[in-house]
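Query structure, 465 tokens:
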């Protein structure tokens, strides 16, 4: 077997050096800002519940400084109610910010500066669920318990933690028949070395786009995930891999992984690369792909990110190895009660002419896979209720354009039905920060006069804990 690992030599060198640093510093407790702020939020919510106070939701997308300021205000309010002396959060020394995993809950926190009686813990489990009701003209209206997910973790030490996510889709699992599925979407070990570099390995979420890592239903608007984040970026995209992540300071953080690549023999004209995900099921890693994300949060209320994937995908084919290169850019901004989001993603697949002809010879059907796919979306929302109410009502609008056959190989023509747009108008009601009731209407269009798509109405409930 010809195994080429040239792309990941740098990662291996960093891992080797990092393990030495880990061994030298394992005795020194460490805690990240993200861990500590999250634990403080949970503790303050518990204190407010005991005193019958409803606290406002703190948006996890805002900067750490804003979250700390909000916590200071809530501590001040609790102080005045209980006549207690509570130290200001901003006066507590904390290490540089570091986000262990944006797609999972923080399970346990052990602040180095806290006494044994004052240590803060969150349960070693979490979860999320969502149910959907979907209807369109000429189709049956369907109710689906779409996802039930349990998240489990364990802290071996302040520097060594395990995280996992087990998902059941569509409620009922049935062998060899149409039904749901069970998948292990995350299962990895984190080894914290220092803010600039830590190690991660196992089953990982590809750090591509906004939704793939942060896909819990209360975290995005709309009943269904955006089309750009399902068709162009195949969320949820996970596989076997290892890599590094860290905080570079001045608002920058990064992730860089080597991961199993998708399988080109399962690409299609309508869903692009989505069907090619190996999902850690005997994943072939002869030639690992490389994926990464760089994010900037140095300006208040603004988050900018860019991500990529690059890898060969023809490991099931003889003498043909198409290369996939994906690039994505996104931005999020919140000003008072208004919230905005935008995302652009495009990928290129080499040798698609040869790939289409080879698959046609094998199956008798030309898959007509595109040489390039492109998608973007723009979204705006407005939060009608003030934060102090503890609830939220937010109308939103999202426009998307996505085409899995943006460019074709010579001799192949695109199908107009795969050049699509979606305009989603909806409302999200949160009676609690962790519970979202959603309703939306989607205006769906394509460029085909023969295969039209029809508008859809969707309703759903999503929650996490």
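Result returned for the query:
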């Amino acid at each position: 077997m010809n195994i080429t690992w040239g792309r990941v030599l740098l990662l291996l060198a960093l891992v080797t050096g990092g393990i030495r640093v880990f061994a030298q510093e394992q005795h020194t407790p460490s805690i990240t800002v993200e861990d500590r702020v999250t634990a403080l939020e949970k503790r303050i919510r518990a204190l407010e519940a005991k005193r019958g106070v409803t606290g406002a939701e703190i948006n996890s997308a805002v900067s750490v400084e804003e979250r700390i300021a909000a916590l200071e205000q809530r501590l001040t309010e609790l102080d005045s109610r209980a006549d207690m002396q509570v130290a200001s959060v901003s006066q507590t020394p904390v290490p540089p910010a570091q986000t262990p995993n944006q797609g999972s809950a923080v399970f346990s926190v052990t602040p180095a500066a806290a006494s044994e009686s004052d240590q803060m813990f969150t349960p070693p489990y979490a979860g999320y669920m969502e149910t959907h009701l979907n209807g369109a003209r000429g189709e049956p209206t369907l109710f689906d318990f779409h996802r039930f997910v349990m998240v489990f973790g364990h802290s071996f030490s302040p520097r060594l933690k395990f995280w996992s996510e087990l998902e059941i889709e569509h409620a009922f699992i049935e062998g060899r028949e149409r039904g749901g599925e069970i998948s292990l979407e995350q299962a990895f070990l984190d080894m914290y070395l220092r803010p600039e570099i830590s190690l991660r390995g196992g089953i990982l979420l590809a750090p591509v786009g906004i939704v793939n890592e942060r896909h819990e239903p209360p975290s995005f608007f709309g009943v269904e995930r955006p089309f750009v984040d399902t068709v162009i970026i195949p969320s949820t995209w996970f596989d076997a891999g290892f890599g590094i992540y860290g905080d570079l300071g001045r608002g920058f953080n990064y992730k860089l992984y080597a991961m199993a690549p998708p399988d080109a023999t399962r690409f299609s004209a309508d869903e692009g690369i989505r069907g090619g995900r190996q999902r850690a099921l005997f994943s072939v890693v002869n030639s690992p792909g490389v994926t990464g994300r760089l994010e900037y949060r140095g300006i208040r209320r603004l988050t900018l990110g860019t991500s990529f994937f690059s890898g060969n995908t023809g490991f099931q084919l003889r003498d043909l190895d198409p290369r996939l290169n994906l690039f994505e850019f996104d931005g999020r901004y919140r000003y008072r009660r208004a919230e905005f989001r935008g995302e652009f993603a495009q990928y290129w697949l080499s040798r698609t002419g040869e790939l289409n002809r080879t698959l046609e010879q094998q199956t008798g059907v030309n898959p007509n896979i595109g040489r390039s796919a492109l998608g973007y979306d723009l979204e705006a929302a407005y939060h009608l209720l003030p934060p102090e109410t503890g609830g939220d009502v937010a109308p939103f609008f999202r426009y998307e354009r996505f085409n899995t056959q943006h460019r074709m190989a010579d001799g192949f023509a695109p199908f107009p039905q795969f050049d699509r747009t979606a305009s989603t108008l909806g409302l999200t009601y949160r009676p609690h920060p962790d519970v979202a009731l959603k309703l939306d209407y989607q205006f769906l269009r394509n460029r085909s006069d023969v295969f039209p798509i029809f508008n859809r109405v969707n309703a759903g409930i999503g929650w996490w804990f």
